Amino acid sequence: MFPRIVIHGGAGTILKTEITTEKEVAYKLALKEALQKGFAILSAKGSAIDAVTAAIVSLEDCPLFNAGKGSVFNAEGRHEMDASIMSGDNLSAGAITGVMNVKNPIVLAKTVMQQSEHVFLMGEGAEIFARKHELKFELDDYFYDEFRYQQWLKIKGTDTITLDHSKEKKFGTVGAVALDAFGNLAAGTSTGGMTNKRYGRVGDSPIIGAGTYANNATCAISCTGHGELFIRNVVAYDISCLMEYKGLSLHEACRIVVHEKLVKMGGEGGLIAIDAQGNIALPFNSDGMYRGWMRSTDDFLTEIYS
Ligand code: ASP
Questions:
Q1: Which of 27, 41, 65, 203 is 20 to 30 Å from the Cα of 224, by its Cα?
Q2: For 24-45, how does the pLDDT look when each residue is reduced to its tens digit (9 = 90+)?
């Protein structure tokens, strides 16, 4: 099996006319670095889970994306993060939501998957679990990004919640899917959610079946977009089901879900997908999606616009 990895850094109103050349270069470089980190693990016969984690950690550590460092501000001016990960070989999964100050939420999700008997931990309990497993914490300052702060100031104190990628044309949730040399699939997603969110709002990213899903029998999926619509459409699992029960190809299943079902309901966004044969799909119904794939160190792609 020839291993490969696919990543995204968020989808939405990303227009070429609104991004400077330097920004474009910076985004593409960050995507390439994440691909390289994940692919290095795959080519050393590492697991799809470890490759997905390494790629997402790289994106979480980069302030350009709305995950880990650079996460959006919630209504209280804090960073509340969500993440999930799933392994396609035995359907094991780990997820966390509403977590603060954890440096790499995806590592916490993976730790939940591998070192607890649970799948989904929230808030304070998830943080206690993270401390018990000696995961890295950072102060609020570490997560601060001036652009996200200005985004929040504009709607602070109002009832408005915005997608990181709505008016400001900026995206950010990150994700990765991979196929390793042993034929195993994995998927992971990490996000700061929506700017000015409150009441403990949770999007699709940490929800297995909605924002993330992996099954060796079908495919691995990581989503980005308007979380509420992705939850209602159970997007990631729906694609797997269309393949499993209807025998559709990865591309056809992705087309139906992203370009028909989601569009009909006004669900803006996209996803990355890989199937057990190594086919790759990166569909989105928005103006752009930060995305990329790597099949060997000199066979890779990084793209932003449609
Ligand atoms: N899907 C994420 C959420 O709703 C947002 C995003 O993809 O940027 O929390």
A1: 41
A2: 999 999 999 999 999 999 999 9
Give me the pLDDT at residue 169, please: 41
* Ligand 1: centre distance to CA 106 (Å): 15
For ligand 1, the distance from its centroid to the CA atom of residue 285, given in whole angstroms, is: 14
Residue 22 lies in a domain: yes
pLDDT for the residue 88: 98
CATH code at position 102: 3.60.20.30
Whether 162 is catalytic is no
Q: Is the CB of 225 under 6 A from ligand 1?
A: yes
- Domain range enclosing 109: 9-305
The Cα–Cα gap between 96 and 256 comes to: 29
Residue nearest atom 7 of ligand 1, based on CA coordinates:
224
CB atoms within 10 A of CB 108: 27
119 DSSP assignment: S
Q: 164 in ligand 1 pocket by Cβ < 6 Å?
A: yes
- Alpha carbon distance 140, 120 (integer Å): 24
Whether residue 194 has its Cβ less than 6 Å from ligand 1: yes
**Residue 284 DSSP code:** B
